[in-house]
Design a protein that fits this description.
By secondary structure, the chain is an alpha/beta fold. It is built from three helices and seven strands. It is 21% helix and 26% strand. The longest helix has 12 residues.
């Protein structure tokens, strides 16, 4: 994201506010873009993605794909995918094509825990945004998009 489009950290106090930030980001995304989401467990990564996917037209439930690696949303416009790489130690021992169904020129990909595969992700699509979510207190999150 160019420096002129970088956002100052934003605080959110509800799931709806976090979803709204995801929706706002989705308006700038195009097929082939990859969004990397980092933050501790429970900071709202999936909530952010849910907001983005809702803005792209997804009406079915959006939940964390922690136990399935990824979920494709072909009904989104453009098609999208949501990956959660938390359970992977890395990609060294995985099939090289593991991410190809989710990341590529025909869809937007939202990737939680991207540090497990960041070099590979960069080779599959354009890193359009990095989203960091942090706990401020029990009810407040800080969201930084770069």
């Amino acid at each position: 994201m160019p420096a002129s489009e970088r956002e100052a950290p934003t605080s959110t106090a509800s799931a709806a506010e976090t979803e709204a930030l995801g929706a706002a980001l989705s308006a700038r995304l195009r097929p082939g873009h990859v969004v990397l989401l980092t933050g501790e467990m429970g900071t709202g990564k999936t909530t952010f993605v849910r907001g983005a996917l809702r803005a792209l037209g997804v009406t079915r439930p959006v939940t964390s794909p922690t136990f399935t690696l990824g979920q494709r949303y072909d009904e989104a416009i453009p098609p999208a995918a949501h990956l959660d790489l938390h359970r992977l130690a890395g990609l060294d021992d995985e099939d090289p094509a593991l991410l190809h169904d989710y990341v590529g020129p025909g869809r937007i990909a939202f990737v939680e825990w991207p540090e497990r595969a960041e070099p590979t992700l960069a080779g599959l699509g354009e890193i359009a945004a990095r989203v960091r979510l942090e706990h401020v207190d029990e009810h407040t999150r800080r969201v930084t998009v770069t």
